[in-house]
Amino acid sequence: MLQQSHQLYEYHVWANEQLFAHFEQLPEDVFHAEITSVFPSVAQTLGHIYLFDQLYMFVLAETPNEDIFPRMPGWMEEAKGKSAGEMRQLFTGVTEQFRELLRRTPDPDKAMTIRHPKYGSLDTRFSDILQHVVNHGTYHRGNVTAMLRQQGYAGVPTDYMFYLLELQKIKEKSLEAK
What is the pTM of this model? Predict the structure, then answer.
């Protein structure tokens, strides 16, 4: 069984994938359409999630700030102007790297000190930062749903409960197959 914090990360991956699968059903211009919202487009919202997934992966890997912050403009540039399919590939890449980090981190409650040049230091745990990654993504997926509705399209359910229901169905099918 997955540790709770790792399962939450897998939920984050699942929820992002639900969005990308939904975009395959929508007109291509919906992804880049400019609207008045938290971000100017769905694409820029997902680019923001991508940027912060990268950032926090490096934070969790205990990479020094001076090695993280210079990478941020490159991550923003990577996401700029991408189609939904291309953005999905970027998310797949960071997910693979994140999962490797999780495999190398056997103790999710490992103590960490996070240092930010503007906000100071925070003594916390690996699992707390991982939960923040999930919460951050959840918040912005909600923004995407609102942006889709502004454009006249339905969102897609990405609630944690739907993820758990899907896991249960997979488990039940596995038991039936035995």
Answer: 0.93
